[in-house]
Design a protein that fits this description.
about 240 residues; mainly alpha; about 0% strand; elongated; disordered N terminus
Length: about 240
């Protein structure tokens, strides 16, 4: 009985470092998506550029404005929107999603950082807009610390630090992928809290407006009744004469 010749199977090491997040085969993807792909990266790139330019002009004219436009909150909000629009526009025009669509291959860490930094910009701007809304409406939700600029500034700073560390470390070594989970979990939790607080404060404003309307209706009814009584008394006096 003859033995089959033994074969030695050798496993070669991967020549490229795996990415922390999966990516499509861009050669196939661009052919499959066609014009829709071009409209996506170019269209959104233009929209984010418009946002950045608009925020820049608002900041440039901040000193000339009166009222809320000059307040630090307005400056901070527009600075965040400027950063959001500029970084996402650069991300889309430079090397959208690492597709090398424009013939340029940007460093992996730079692409991830440009993409990821927009999320804390988005949540932070909404957070400050909500704070400004609460100040204007003179509403307090929960503890005063939740409406403290320093406390919210600390949360915003922590979010930025988490994103920067997570995006750069996972770009260097895919073994740090749990950092992305931490980063995205923070974004989801922070976004959920902001959404809930927006809804809660909005309902409080609606209820307060309803109470004010009822009070005004009561005042108007009382004034109408007093005016009607006054007229009846005057008519009674005239009839007696």
């Amino acid at each position: 009985m003859s033995r089959s010749p033994s074969t030695n199977i050798s496993f070669s090491q991967p020549t490229t470092v795996p990415n922390a997040e999966p990516e499509p085969d861009w050669t196939v993807a661009r052919q499959l998506w066609g014009v829709a792909w071009e409209m996506h990266w170019a269209g959104f790139g233009v929209l984010f550029s418009i946002l950045a330019v608009h925020s820049f002009f608002v900041l440039a004219q901040a000193k000339k404005k009166q009222g809320f436009g000059r307040k630090p909150l307005a400056v901070a909000i527009n600075s965040l929107l400027l950063t959001l629009g500029a970084t996402r526009a650069v991300f889309l025009f430079l090397d959208p999603y690492e597709s090398e669509n424009n013939g340029f291959k940007s460093p992996y860490w730079l692409t991830k950082l440009l993409y990821g930094i927009t999320f804390p910009c988005l949540t932070s701007s909404f957070c400050l807009i909500h704070l400004a809304f609460l100040e204007v409406a003179k509403i307090q939700i929960g503890s005063k610390k939740l409406q403290n600029v320093r406390f919210l500034g600390g949360v915003i700073a922590i979010h930025f630090v988490i994103v920067i560390i997570a995006e750069t470390t996972t770009a260097i070594n895919a073994k740090f992928t749990p950092m992305l989970i931490l980063c995205q979990s923070f974004f989801i939790l922070w976004g959920f809290l902001l959404s809930a607080s927006f809804i809660f404060s909005g309902l409080k404003v609606i209820l307060r407006a309803e109470q004010v309307r009822k009070q005004l209706d009561t005042i108007e009814i009382g004034a109408a009744e007093r005016e009607s009584g006054k007229r009846r008394r005057q008519a009674l006096l005239k009839s007696r004469k």
